[in-house]
Amino acid sequence: MDIARSLRAEARRANERRLLVLAGDPESTRERARAALDAADVPGAETTVVGPEPFLACEQHEQSRAEELLGRTRTAVVLDAHEELRPDALGRTVGAVDGGGLYVLLAPPLETWPEGRDGFDASLAVPPFEVEDVTGHFRRRFVETLRVHRGIAIVDADTGTVEQDGLTDPPPSRPVQSPTPPADAQFRPETYAQCLTDDQRDAVRAFESLRTASEALVVEADRGRGKSSAAGLAAGTLAVEGRDVLVTAPQYRSAGEVFTRAAHLLEVLGSNFARDRASNPQRLDVSGAGCVRYAPPEQAALLPDGPDVVIVDEAAALPVRRLEQFLDAPAVAFTTTVHGYEGAGRGFSVRFRDRLEESDHAVTDVSMTTPIRYGDADPVEVWAFRALLLDARPPVDQLIDGSTPETVEYRRLSAADLLADEHLLREVFGLLVLAHYRTEPSDLARLLDAPNLAVRALTHEGHVVAVALLAQEGGLSADTRAAMYEGGRVRGNMLPDVLSTQLRDEAAGIPVGQRVLRIATHAAVRSRGLGSQLLSEIRAEFADHVDWLGVGYGATPELVRFWADNGYQTVHLATSRNATSGEYSVVMLDPCSDDGASLAARHGTWFQDRIPAVLSDPLDDCDPDVVRTVLRATHGEPSLSLSEWEWRLVAGVPGGASVLDTNPKPFRELARRHLSAPADATALAPREERLLVKKVLQAQPWPTVAEELGFVSERECMRTLGGIVERLTRLYGDLWVQEELDRHQ
């Protein structure tokens, strides 16, 4: 109790946070946590327990629901890690603690914790591995960070022994001088008077751009920098000016600070406003002016009632495809947490930023670095960044600028290698984080502990320039394959799962493969062949030991071409969009043995058989360039077996004697044949191939096809398709078919 009281007093004096670790028996740690928070004078109303049991009289969530704390501020958060320690839950909750508050971690005895196996470890034990095969490297490193970082007290809850008191004797926090309002500000002075830092003032100033249509704003910051408050100040001001401001976030709680600050500003301005508590408590109506209202993302994306401005808070936690929908708003702002706290990886910065730059909006970027919730020397933030590698970065450009396939070294990096070299670990993980939209804090634990994963890298003068994360899949027992085939959930083994459950191939789990989970090349040395070099080295290493190499990812034309150029062939295109990337996922295989070749051949054939039907139904909105590249990446020559009547129908289209709608089937077969394995790859221009996809394979209406492909009229679009059919008929039809074609010219 004395330790907790002292920690809290020091934290309040310095406007920092402190971490209290209570290690030992579950009941002992929970009882001591109760006594510690009482001694530290932390009210239950300001406390949240994240764990399996509501042992305190306060808010409680399972670790799986840790996102409930996003965008919120608490005086104390207790993370109960006895049953499991989820790295994502740690990352999502630690940032919610306010300056002067405590983060309390309940854990087994630290000496034995890395050797035990918990619920999270069980999730890493994917078949055919068992939980005993999971290592304890992540928690071993985690415990080491607890023991070496400032501001962390460790207490043996069983004996009451204080291993370290966590006191740092910092100087008292100094009052922060209020920022000076911009001289030429368009928002009212009272708005800027509410800003607490220069960063926040600059962010609010950037929101002024949203007074004009076709503007977009991106505000990036770590947790606790006041970005949601800045959004709230701007929203309130815009509402006073008569604008309808629509706010959205993953949950309303995440956007709560926006409404709190907006309402406070309206009070300061003396505005007459009403908060609708009867039907929609998330709405502020300013009398005679505008409003600030909330809608959940799926509703807000439809832009209900035509808002003037949309503010998307915690944008990185939303799927990329959902974010794209907000680009239809007149003006839009995205606030997002960097360094992975939002737990949604890098979807915003890796995938969505390209879409934003291509939009019709003028984009303004603002970064906020000065903490508001706590002091800028806060030791808990420093520890969290180190423990989860939230600030990991690849090497600086200058160190790897001379990298070529001839200068790099192929390295097989074990978990022991990464643990022994913190700098190497930071470069590997930093490259994965910055290059991929799905990397999360839990991926660090997988990297270090999962028995089915392997890390391979290319290094230049000791620095990582390209890295791949591989997962062993397949080699499953008959019982596991049967359970998978019957719809049972089998962890890991994504490719056998898709091929077995969705495509009804129970034998797909027999061959053993290595799936490329992630591959990343340093941005400074891309387009030099390093990614292909890494895949080539991987194949050379594994080809004699596995049946296949595989990959599944959100398909873009560039990525499909990359994998096809490296020998991978299409076997499946998902019929629903990936929830995070917003793209249709493609599965590709590179067979390494006869069994692997048999697997790829039968699924390649089945893919060709079903693709015409799915393109005209669930995939009718798939990007035609994705369709073109996915089909071109199939191996083998698909059959083209048209009846005499079907050939006569096709041959009559160019001269106007017949029409496509009489029977689209032969036209689809002809299109599939050419797009998959063209007899002459130069026969059609890219736009003509897109026309084949959109009209023939996806059966889209003529007006839609003509508009989206830039034809001046539907008639021109129809004539172009007639010319395409003529060329393909001459390319693939027998002599009598070409004579039939000439008959109608």
UniProtKB/TrEMBL annotation:
Belongs to the TmcA family. NCBIfam families: RNAactase_tcmA_Halo. The gene is tmcA. Keywords: Acyltransferase, ATP-binding, Cytoplasm, Nucleotide-binding, RNA-binding, Transferase, tRNA processing, tRNA-binding. It comes from Haloarcula taiwanensis. GO terms for molecular function: 18S rRNA cytidine N-acetyltransferase activity; ATP binding; mRNA N-acetyltransferase activity; tRNA binding; tRNA cytidine N4-acetyltransferase activity. Pfam families: GNAT_acetyltr_2, NAT10_TcmA_helicase, TmcA_N. Coiled coil: none annotated. This is tRNA(Met) cytidine acetyltransferase TmcA. GO terms for cellular component: cytoplasm. Acetyl-CoA binds at residues 519-521, 558.
